[in-house]
Amino acid sequence: MPIDYTERIPNNVDLADDRRLKRALESWQPKFLDWWQTLGPALPTQDVYLRTAVDVGRAGWAHFGHVALPEYRWGIFLADRKPDRRIAFGQEMGAPVWQQVPGEYRADLQRLIVVQGDTEPASVEQQRHLGMTAPSLYDLRNLFQVNVEEGRHLWAMVYLLHAYFGREGRDEAENLLVRNSGSEESPRILGAFNEETPDWLSFYMFTYFTDRDGKYQLGTLKESAFDPLSRTCEFMLKEEAHHMMVGTTGVDRVVRRTAEVMRERDTDEVAAYGAIPLSVIQKYLNFHYSVSLDLFGSETSTNAANYFTAGLKGRWMEERRKDDHRLTDAFTEIGTVRDDQLTGVEIPSLIGLNQDLRDEYAADCAGGVKRWNAILTDAGLDARLYLPHQGFNRKVGAYSGHHITPDGRIVAAEEWEAGRDTWLPTPDDKAYVESLMRPVYDPGKIAAWVAPPSNGINGKPFDYEYVHLI
What we know:
By secondary structure, this protein is mainly alpha-helical.
Protein backbone atom coordinates (compact mmCIF):
# COMPACT_ATOMS: atom_id res chain seq x y z
CA MET A 1 0.00 0.00 0.00
CA PRO A 2 1.15 3.59 -0.58
CA ILE A 3 2.08 5.69 2.44
CA ASP A 4 -0.83 7.87 3.52
CA TYR A 5 0.43 11.28 4.64
CA THR A 6 -3.08 12.66 5.17
CA GLU A 7 -3.27 10.71 8.42
CA ARG A 8 -2.19 12.11 11.78
CA ILE A 9 0.19 9.13 11.88
CA PRO A 10 1.42 8.44 8.32
CA ASN A 11 1.24 4.74 7.57
CA ASN A 12 0.77 2.02 4.99
CA VAL A 13 -0.92 -0.48 7.34
CA ASP A 14 -4.59 0.59 7.02
CA LEU A 15 -4.48 2.23 10.43
CA ALA A 16 -7.72 4.10 9.67
CA ASP A 17 -9.59 0.79 9.56
CA ASP A 18 -8.58 -0.22 13.10
CA ARG A 19 -10.04 2.47 15.33
CA ARG A 20 -8.91 0.95 18.61
CA LEU A 21 -5.31 0.66 17.44
CA LYS A 22 -5.41 4.12 15.91
CA ARG A 23 -6.66 5.66 19.17
CA ALA A 24 -3.99 3.83 21.17
CA LEU A 25 -1.17 5.04 18.92
CA GLU A 26 -2.56 8.58 18.80
CA SER A 27 -2.54 8.49 22.60
CA TRP A 28 1.14 7.41 22.57
CA GLN A 29 2.12 10.06 19.99
CA PRO A 30 2.11 13.10 22.36
CA LYS A 31 4.35 11.18 24.76
CA PHE A 32 6.76 10.49 21.92
CA LEU A 33 6.77 14.17 20.90
CA ASP A 34 7.37 15.20 24.50
CA TRP A 35 10.30 12.74 24.66
CA TRP A 36 11.67 14.19 21.40
CA GLN A 37 11.45 17.75 22.73
CA THR A 38 13.02 16.75 26.05
CA LEU A 39 15.70 14.24 25.01
CA GLY A 40 15.97 14.69 21.25
CA PRO A 41 18.37 17.11 19.49
CA ALA A 42 19.24 20.01 21.79
CA LEU A 43 20.40 22.50 19.14
CA PRO A 44 17.55 24.85 18.11
CA THR A 45 16.95 24.86 14.35
CA GLN A 46 14.54 26.50 11.98
CA ASP A 47 14.52 23.62 9.50
CA VAL A 48 16.71 20.81 8.15
CA TYR A 49 17.12 19.30 4.66
CA LEU A 50 15.74 15.84 5.42
CA ARG A 51 14.75 12.72 3.57
CA THR A 52 11.21 11.50 4.21
CA ALA A 53 9.87 8.14 3.08
CA VAL A 54 7.18 8.36 0.40
CA ASP A 55 7.18 4.73 -0.77
CA VAL A 56 8.53 1.40 0.46
CA GLY A 57 9.20 -0.16 -2.93
CA ARG A 58 12.32 -0.28 -5.06
CA ALA A 59 11.10 2.43 -7.44
CA GLY A 60 12.26 5.13 -5.08
CA TRP A 61 10.95 6.05 -1.68
CA ALA A 62 12.65 9.25 -0.53
CA HIS A 63 11.47 12.86 -0.72
CA PHE A 64 13.96 15.61 0.19
CA GLY A 65 13.09 19.02 1.53
CA HIS A 66 13.60 21.44 4.41
CA VAL A 67 11.50 20.36 7.40
CA ALA A 68 11.18 21.78 10.90
CA LEU A 69 12.33 18.92 13.16
CA PRO A 70 9.27 18.89 15.47
CA GLU A 71 7.07 18.69 12.34
CA TYR A 72 8.81 15.68 10.83
CA ARG A 73 6.19 13.09 9.86
CA TRP A 74 7.16 9.99 11.79
CA GLY A 75 5.09 7.05 10.64
CA ILE A 76 4.58 3.30 10.39
CA PHE A 77 5.88 1.70 7.21
CA LEU A 78 6.15 -1.99 6.38
CA ALA A 79 7.68 -3.44 3.23
CA ASP A 80 5.20 -4.90 0.76
CA ARG A 81 3.73 -8.22 1.74
CA LYS A 82 4.74 -11.32 -0.25
CA PRO A 83 1.55 -13.44 -0.38
CA ASP A 84 3.37 -16.74 -0.92
CA ARG A 85 6.17 -16.21 1.62
CA ARG A 86 7.16 -19.37 3.53
CA ILE A 87 9.21 -19.97 6.67
CA ALA A 88 12.82 -20.40 5.52
CA PHE A 89 14.37 -22.18 8.53
CA GLY A 90 13.75 -24.12 11.73
CA GLN A 91 11.33 -26.85 12.59
CA GLU A 92 8.45 -25.29 10.62
CA MET A 93 10.47 -24.59 7.48
CA GLY A 94 8.22 -24.55 4.41
CA ALA A 95 5.04 -23.64 6.27
CA PRO A 96 3.29 -20.31 5.57
CA VAL A 97 4.63 -17.39 7.61
CA TRP A 98 2.53 -16.10 10.50
CA GLN A 99 0.36 -13.00 10.27
CA GLN A 100 -0.49 -13.22 13.98
CA VAL A 101 1.65 -14.11 16.99
CA PRO A 102 1.50 -17.82 17.92
CA GLY A 103 0.60 -18.06 21.60
CA GLU A 104 3.56 -20.28 22.47
CA TYR A 105 6.02 -17.70 21.11
CA ARG A 106 4.33 -14.57 22.39
CA ALA A 107 6.75 -13.80 25.24
CA ASP A 108 9.87 -14.47 23.14
CA LEU A 109 8.71 -12.34 20.21
CA GLN A 110 7.72 -9.52 22.51
CA ARG A 111 11.14 -9.59 24.17
CA LEU A 112 12.95 -9.48 20.81
CA ILE A 113 10.88 -6.48 19.72
CA VAL A 114 11.34 -4.65 23.02
CA VAL A 115 15.14 -5.07 23.00
CA GLN A 116 15.35 -3.86 19.40
CA GLY A 117 12.96 -0.99 20.11
CA ASP A 118 14.95 0.10 23.15
CA THR A 119 18.07 0.76 21.08
CA GLU A 120 16.34 3.25 18.78
CA PRO A 121 15.56 6.14 21.17
CA ALA A 122 18.75 5.34 23.11
CA SER A 123 21.01 6.45 20.26
CA VAL A 124 19.04 9.71 19.89
CA GLU A 125 19.58 10.37 23.59
CA GLN A 126 23.28 9.55 23.30
CA GLN A 127 23.66 12.02 20.42
CA ARG A 128 21.48 14.78 21.87
CA HIS A 129 24.19 17.42 22.28
CA LEU A 130 26.33 16.69 19.21
CA GLY A 131 24.65 19.42 17.18
CA MET A 132 26.33 21.97 19.43
CA THR A 133 29.74 20.98 18.02
CA ALA A 134 28.98 19.97 14.42
CA PRO A 135 32.03 20.31 12.12
CA SER A 136 29.87 21.48 9.18
CA LEU A 137 26.25 22.00 8.14
CA TYR A 138 26.57 18.84 6.04
CA ASP A 139 27.46 16.82 9.14
CA LEU A 140 24.77 18.54 11.20
CA ARG A 141 22.18 17.55 8.62
CA ASN A 142 23.38 13.94 8.65
CA LEU A 143 23.14 13.83 12.43
CA PHE A 144 19.54 15.00 12.32
CA GLN A 145 18.68 12.55 9.53
CA VAL A 146 20.01 9.70 11.66
CA ASN A 147 18.05 11.01 14.65
CA VAL A 148 14.66 11.27 12.92
CA GLU A 149 15.08 7.82 11.39
CA GLU A 150 15.94 6.30 14.75
CA GLY A 151 12.76 7.95 16.00
CA ARG A 152 10.83 6.32 13.17
CA HIS A 153 12.39 2.96 13.99
CA LEU A 154 11.04 3.40 17.50
CA TRP A 155 7.60 3.93 15.95
CA ALA A 156 8.07 0.72 13.96
CA MET A 157 8.56 -1.36 17.10
CA VAL A 158 5.84 0.47 19.03
CA TYR A 159 3.36 -0.31 16.26
CA LEU A 160 4.12 -4.03 16.56
CA LEU A 161 3.78 -3.93 20.35
CA HIS A 162 0.42 -2.14 20.16
CA ALA A 163 -0.98 -4.10 17.25
CA TYR A 164 -0.05 -7.66 18.29
CA PHE A 165 0.70 -7.85 22.03
CA GLY A 166 -2.32 -6.36 23.81
CA ARG A 167 -2.02 -4.60 27.15
CA GLU A 168 1.46 -6.00 27.85
CA GLY A 169 2.63 -4.60 24.52
CA ARG A 170 1.16 -1.19 25.28
CA ASP A 171 2.89 -1.18 28.67
CA GLU A 172 6.20 -2.08 27.03
CA ALA A 173 5.72 0.74 24.52
CA GLU A 174 5.30 3.15 27.41
CA ASN A 175 8.50 1.87 29.03
CA LEU A 176 10.48 2.57 25.85
CA LEU A 177 10.09 6.25 26.72
CA VAL A 178 10.71 5.75 30.46
CA ARG A 179 14.18 4.22 30.13
CA ASN A 180 16.90 6.73 29.24
CA SER A 181 20.47 6.23 28.05
CA GLY A 182 22.89 6.38 30.98
CA SER A 183 20.17 6.71 33.61
CA GLU A 184 21.11 5.20 36.97
CA GLU A 185 17.48 4.50 37.86
CA SER A 186 16.21 3.28 34.48
CA PRO A 187 19.01 2.67 31.97
CA ARG A 188 18.65 1.28 28.46
CA ILE A 189 18.67 -2.51 28.20
CA LEU A 190 21.97 -3.01 26.34
CA GLY A 191 25.24 -1.69 27.74
CA ALA A 192 26.53 -0.02 24.57
CA PHE A 193 23.46 2.22 24.55
CA ASN A 194 24.30 3.62 27.95
CA GLU A 195 27.75 4.79 26.85
CA GLU A 196 28.32 8.46 26.08
CA THR A 197 28.71 9.77 22.54
CA PRO A 198 30.48 12.98 23.58
CA ASP A 199 32.23 13.98 20.35
CA TRP A 200 32.03 13.56 16.58
CA LEU A 201 34.82 10.98 16.34
CA SER A 202 32.73 8.86 18.73
CA PHE A 203 29.65 9.54 16.58
CA TYR A 204 31.37 8.38 13.40
CA MET A 205 32.62 5.26 15.18
CA PHE A 206 29.18 4.61 16.67
CA THR A 207 27.42 4.89 13.33
CA TYR A 208 30.05 2.67 11.73
CA PHE A 209 30.33 -0.05 14.37
CA THR A 210 27.20 0.05 16.53
CA ASP A 211 24.73 0.86 13.77
CA ARG A 212 26.36 -1.96 11.81
CA ASP A 213 25.44 -4.27 14.67
CA GLY A 214 21.91 -2.94 14.17
CA LYS A 215 22.09 -3.92 10.51
CA TYR A 216 22.88 -7.51 11.41
CA GLN A 217 20.29 -7.73 14.17
CA LEU A 218 17.62 -6.35 11.83
CA GLY A 219 18.81 -8.76 9.15
CA THR A 220 18.14 -11.76 11.39
CA LEU A 221 14.70 -10.42 12.37
CA LYS A 222 13.90 -9.83 8.69
CA GLU A 223 14.05 -13.61 8.32
CA SER A 224 11.42 -14.10 11.04
CA ALA A 225 8.38 -16.27 10.45
CA PHE A 226 6.33 -13.49 12.09
CA ASP A 227 5.67 -11.63 8.86
CA PRO A 228 4.81 -8.15 10.25
CA LEU A 229 8.16 -8.13 12.08
CA SER A 230 9.97 -9.30 8.94
CA ARG A 231 8.37 -6.62 6.77
CA THR A 232 9.05 -3.93 9.38
CA CYS A 233 12.75 -4.81 9.57
CA GLU A 234 13.07 -5.04 5.79
CA PHE A 235 12.10 -1.39 5.46
CA MET A 236 14.18 -0.32 8.47
CA LEU A 237 17.27 -1.76 6.78
CA LYS A 238 16.89 0.76 3.95
CA GLU A 239 17.18 3.60 6.44
CA GLU A 240 19.93 1.90 8.46
CA ALA A 241 22.13 1.93 5.35
CA HIS A 242 22.31 5.74 5.55
CA HIS A 243 23.45 5.60 9.17
CA MET A 244 26.35 3.32 8.27
CA MET A 245 27.25 5.58 5.32
CA VAL A 246 27.57 8.46 7.78
CA GLY A 247 29.95 6.38 9.90
CA THR A 248 31.98 4.95 7.03
CA THR A 249 32.54 8.25 5.26
CA GLY A 250 32.94 10.10 8.56
CA VAL A 251 35.91 7.96 9.59
CA ASP A 252 37.15 8.20 5.98
CA ARG A 253 37.29 11.96 6.32
CA VAL A 254 38.99 11.97 9.71
CA VAL A 255 41.67 9.58 8.44
CA ARG A 256 42.08 11.57 5.22
CA ARG A 257 42.60 14.83 7.09
CA THR A 258 45.08 13.22 9.48
CA ALA A 259 46.96 11.71 6.52
CA GLU A 260 47.10 15.10 4.81
CA VAL A 261 48.66 16.71 7.88
CA MET A 262 51.10 13.82 8.39
CA ARG A 263 52.29 14.16 4.80
CA GLU A 264 52.40 17.96 4.74
CA ARG A 265 54.24 18.22 8.07
CA ASP A 266 56.23 14.99 7.75
CA THR A 267 55.31 13.92 11.27
CA ASP A 268 53.06 11.55 13.20
CA GLU A 269 52.59 14.24 15.85
CA VAL A 270 49.63 15.91 14.18
CA ALA A 271 47.91 17.14 17.35
CA ALA A 272 50.03 20.30 17.23
CA TYR A 273 48.37 21.07 13.88
CA GLY A 274 44.77 20.43 14.94
CA ALA A 275 44.34 16.92 13.50
CA ILE A 276 43.58 13.67 15.33
CA PRO A 277 46.58 11.31 15.62
CA LEU A 278 46.19 7.87 14.09
CA SER A 279 46.99 6.36 17.49
CA VAL A 280 43.92 8.08 18.95
CA ILE A 281 41.75 7.03 16.01
CA GLN A 282 42.90 3.44 16.63
CA LYS A 283 41.99 3.66 20.31
CA TYR A 284 38.49 4.90 19.50
CA LEU A 285 38.16 2.12 16.93
CA ASN A 286 39.25 -0.47 19.51
CA PHE A 287 36.69 0.74 22.02
CA HIS A 288 33.68 0.97 19.72
CA TYR A 289 34.41 -2.32 17.99
CA SER A 290 34.81 -4.24 21.26
CA VAL A 291 31.70 -2.71 22.83
CA SER A 292 29.70 -3.53 19.70
CA LEU A 293 30.93 -7.14 19.69
CA ASP A 294 29.34 -7.56 23.11
CA LEU A 295 25.94 -6.67 21.64
CA PHE A 296 25.82 -10.06 19.89
CA GLY A 297 25.70 -11.86 23.24
CA SER A 298 27.52 -14.95 24.46
CA GLU A 299 29.19 -17.23 21.92
CA THR A 300 26.93 -20.07 23.01
CA SER A 301 23.24 -19.46 23.53
CA THR A 302 20.32 -21.81 24.00
CA ASN A 303 17.99 -18.83 23.54
CA ALA A 304 19.42 -18.18 20.07
CA ALA A 305 19.04 -21.88 19.27
CA ASN A 306 15.42 -21.89 20.44
CA TYR A 307 14.61 -18.72 18.46
CA PHE A 308 16.04 -20.29 15.32
CA THR A 309 14.32 -23.63 15.75
CA ALA A 310 10.99 -21.91 16.40
CA GLY A 311 11.38 -19.65 13.36
CA LEU A 312 11.51 -16.39 15.34
CA LYS A 313 14.97 -15.22 14.28
CA GLY A 314 17.09 -16.55 11.43
CA ARG A 315 20.67 -16.11 10.32
CA TRP A 316 22.11 -13.32 8.23
CA MET A 317 21.09 -13.99 4.59
CA GLU A 318 19.41 -17.20 5.69
CA GLU A 319 18.06 -18.20 2.28
CA ARG A 320 21.52 -17.95 0.70
CA ARG A 321 23.01 -20.48 3.12
CA LYS A 322 23.99 -23.82 1.58
CA ASP A 323 22.74 -26.17 4.29
CA ASP A 324 19.49 -27.72 5.50
CA HIS A 325 18.39 -24.54 7.41
CA ARG A 326 17.58 -26.68 10.46
CA LEU A 327 21.11 -27.30 11.81
CA THR A 328 20.03 -30.25 13.96
CA ASP A 329 23.14 -32.25 13.06
CA ALA A 330 25.57 -29.42 12.25
CA PHE A 331 28.67 -28.43 14.21
CA THR A 332 30.87 -25.36 14.15
CA GLU A 333 34.07 -24.17 15.82
CA ILE A 334 34.14 -21.09 18.02
CA GLY A 335 36.92 -19.31 19.88
CA THR A 336 37.22 -19.65 23.63
CA VAL A 337 39.74 -19.64 26.49
CA ARG A 338 40.93 -22.89 28.04
CA ASP A 339 43.74 -23.22 30.57
CA ASP A 340 44.65 -19.57 29.96
CA GLN A 341 45.14 -20.24 26.26
CA LEU A 342 43.12 -19.04 23.27
CA THR A 343 41.77 -22.05 21.48
CA GLY A 344 38.89 -23.34 19.41
CA VAL A 345 36.14 -25.70 20.45
CA GLU A 346 33.56 -27.52 18.35
CA ILE A 347 29.95 -27.02 19.38
CA PRO A 348 26.52 -27.66 17.83
CA SER A 349 25.84 -24.94 15.27
CA LEU A 350 22.46 -24.24 16.83
CA ILE A 351 23.93 -22.95 20.07
CA GLY A 352 26.69 -21.05 18.21
CA LEU A 353 24.37 -18.77 16.23
CA ASN A 354 25.40 -15.62 18.10
CA GLN A 355 29.00 -16.23 17.08
CA ASP A 356 27.93 -16.99 13.51
CA LEU A 357 26.35 -13.53 13.35
CA ARG A 358 29.31 -11.90 15.10
CA ASP A 359 31.67 -13.40 12.52
CA GLU A 360 29.55 -12.01 9.68
CA TYR A 361 29.71 -8.62 11.37
CA ALA A 362 33.48 -8.78 11.96
CA ALA A 363 34.11 -9.58 8.29
CA ASP A 364 31.99 -6.59 7.31
CA CYS A 365 33.85 -4.31 9.73
CA ALA A 366 37.15 -5.42 8.20
CA GLY A 367 36.00 -3.88 4.93
CA GLY A 368 35.93 -0.45 6.53
CA VAL A 369 39.43 -0.85 7.91
CA LYS A 370 40.65 -1.89 4.46
CA ARG A 371 39.03 1.24 3.04
CA TRP A 372 40.66 3.51 5.64
CA ASN A 373 44.06 1.91 5.08
CA ALA A 374 43.70 2.56 1.35
CA ILE A 375 43.48 6.26 2.21
CA LEU A 376 46.77 5.98 4.10
CA THR A 377 48.35 4.11 1.19
CA ASP A 378 47.20 6.74 -1.29
CA ALA A 379 48.81 9.37 0.94
CA GLY A 380 52.12 7.48 0.75
CA LEU A 381 52.06 6.49 4.44
CA ASP A 382 53.13 3.17 5.93
CA ALA A 383 50.90 3.41 9.04
CA ARG A 384 47.89 1.10 9.20
CA LEU A 385 44.72 0.75 11.25
CA TYR A 386 43.47 -2.68 12.33
CA LEU A 387 40.62 -4.50 14.07
CA PRO A 388 41.62 -5.82 17.49
CA HIS A 389 41.19 -9.48 18.39
CA GLN A 390 37.58 -10.40 19.17
CA GLY A 391 38.58 -11.16 22.76
CA PHE A 392 39.91 -7.66 23.43
CA ASN A 393 38.06 -5.60 26.07
CA ARG A 394 35.10 -7.96 26.13
CA LYS A 395 32.54 -7.89 28.95
CA VAL A 396 30.19 -10.57 27.56
CA GLY A 397 30.81 -14.18 26.56
CA ALA A 398 33.75 -16.56 26.58
CA TYR A 399 36.40 -13.81 26.62
CA SER A 400 34.92 -11.78 29.46
CA GLY A 401 37.01 -11.88 32.61
CA HIS A 402 40.19 -12.48 30.61
CA HIS A 403 42.87 -9.91 29.80
CA ILE A 404 43.40 -10.15 26.05
CA THR A 405 45.51 -7.68 24.10
CA PRO A 406 44.49 -6.28 20.70
CA ASP A 407 46.93 -8.66 19.00
CA GLY A 408 45.33 -11.67 20.70
CA ARG A 409 47.58 -12.49 23.66
CA ILE A 410 46.30 -13.45 27.11
CA VAL A 411 48.26 -11.46 29.66
CA ALA A 412 48.23 -10.92 33.40
CA ALA A 413 46.04 -8.20 34.83
CA GLU A 414 49.09 -6.07 35.60
CA GLU A 415 50.34 -6.17 32.00
CA TRP A 416 46.86 -5.39 30.68
CA GLU A 417 46.52 -2.39 32.98
CA ALA A 418 49.97 -1.21 31.94
CA GLY A 419 48.95 -1.34 28.29
CA ARG A 420 45.41 0.01 28.65
CA ASP A 421 46.36 3.59 27.82
CA THR A 422 47.96 2.52 24.55
CA TRP A 423 44.86 0.54 23.51
CA LEU A 424 41.86 2.50 24.76
CA PRO A 425 41.10 6.24 24.86
CA THR A 426 42.58 7.95 27.90
CA PRO A 427 41.10 11.00 29.66
CA ASP A 428 43.78 13.07 27.91
CA ASP A 429 42.83 11.61 24.50
CA LYS A 430 39.17 12.40 25.12
CA ALA A 431 40.02 15.90 26.34
CA TYR A 432 42.07 16.57 23.20
CA VAL A 433 39.34 15.34 20.87
CA GLU A 434 36.80 17.38 22.83
CA SER A 435 39.01 20.47 22.45
CA LEU A 436 38.63 20.17 18.66
CA MET A 437 34.84 20.07 18.85
CA ARG A 438 34.00 23.63 17.89
CA PRO A 439 30.92 24.22 15.74
CA VAL A 440 31.23 25.36 12.13
CA TYR A 441 27.86 26.55 10.87
CA ASP A 442 28.86 28.59 7.81
CA PRO A 443 27.84 26.97 4.50
CA GLY A 444 30.86 25.47 2.71
CA LYS A 445 33.11 25.70 5.79
CA ILE A 446 34.40 22.78 7.84
CA ALA A 447 36.42 22.13 10.99
CA ALA A 448 40.16 21.65 10.52
CA TRP A 449 40.27 18.12 11.99
CA VAL A 450 38.09 16.50 9.31
CA ALA A 451 38.16 16.57 5.50
CA PRO A 452 35.11 17.71 3.52
CA PRO A 453 32.90 15.02 1.93
CA SER A 454 33.38 13.94 -1.67
CA ASN A 455 29.68 14.50 -2.42
CA GLY A 456 26.80 16.40 -0.95
CA ILE A 457 23.28 15.13 -0.22
CA ASN A 458 20.85 14.36 -3.06
CA GLY A 459 23.04 16.04 -5.66
CA LYS A 460 23.42 19.23 -3.62
CA PRO A 461 26.89 20.75 -3.25
CA PHE A 462 28.82 20.71 0.01
CA ASP A 463 28.20 24.45 0.46
CA TYR A 464 24.42 24.03 0.29
CA GLU A 465 22.57 25.42 3.32
CA TYR A 466 21.46 22.05 4.68
CA VAL A 467 20.37 23.46 8.03
CA HIS A 468 18.81 26.82 8.89
CA LEU A 469 19.58 27.72 12.49
CA ILE A 470 17.42 29.92 14.67
